[in-house]
Design a protein that fits this description.
The protein is an all-alpha fold. It has two domains: 53 residues, no CATH class; 126 residues, no CATH class. The protein is 73% helix and 0% strand. α6 runs antiparallel to α7. The termini are far apart.
Length: 179
């Protein structure tokens, strides 16, 4: 291993530790890691900043902003309380975009006075189960034509898989993340 590889692995380990410890804000840690890679010459400024023009990065950043706005304006609070009332003593089935649903899940957990971790895990799992339609994710759309699939193929195979994963998530999540 060369010195650059060791530096990158060390920086990655430090970044993970700082993320996990939550001593600094996540965005600050990420920017410090990026700055370190630039200052050490591992990345050029052009390489380091190239990802900021990527539409996916901009969408994710926008979702963070929308999520924070929902939380700060009280919309997440109101929706979280309604969701908690709807869910009663049971678990809520959160099936929406993760960055929009995370603040609502946090508020539901606070209202029910339970741990937020299982709620957030369900949101994360739900956000990764986009296979019931060909327009649910870019990957599905990409394989639609070359695979000679029809819309009904996704519904026929994706819906049972979605239901199976939803059931598995509801049963397994509380084992690893107790309320």
């Amino acid at each position: 291993m060369n010195v650059d590889m060791l530096l990158v692995f060390g920086l990655l380990a430090l970044t993970v530790v700082l993320f996990a410890s939550e001593r600094l804000r996540l965005d600050v840690v990420a920017l410090l890691a990026l700055l370190t890679l630039m200052l050490t010459g591992i990345l050029t400024p052009v390489e380091a900043l190239a990802g900021f023009s990527d539409p996916i990065v901009l969408i994710i950043a926008g979702l963070f902003i929308v999520g924070a706005g929902l939380f700060q304006t009280g919309v997440a609070d109101a929706l979280g309380q309604r969701l908690a009332r709807f869910a009663g003593a049971g678990e809520a089935r959160l099936v929406s975009a993760i960055m929009l649903m995370a603040p609502i899940a946090l508020q539901a957990a606070a209202t029910l006075q339970v741990s937020p971790y299982p709620m957030l895990m369900i949101v994360a799992i739900a956000a990764s189960t986009a296979f019931a339609t060909p327009i649910a994710s870019p990957v599905n759309t990409l394989v639609l034509g070359p695979g000679d699939y029809r819309f009904s193929d996704f519904v026929r195979v994706g819906t049972p898989l979605l239901l199976l994963l939803m059931l598995a998530a509801i049963l397994v999540t509380p084992v690893f993340f107790p309320l």
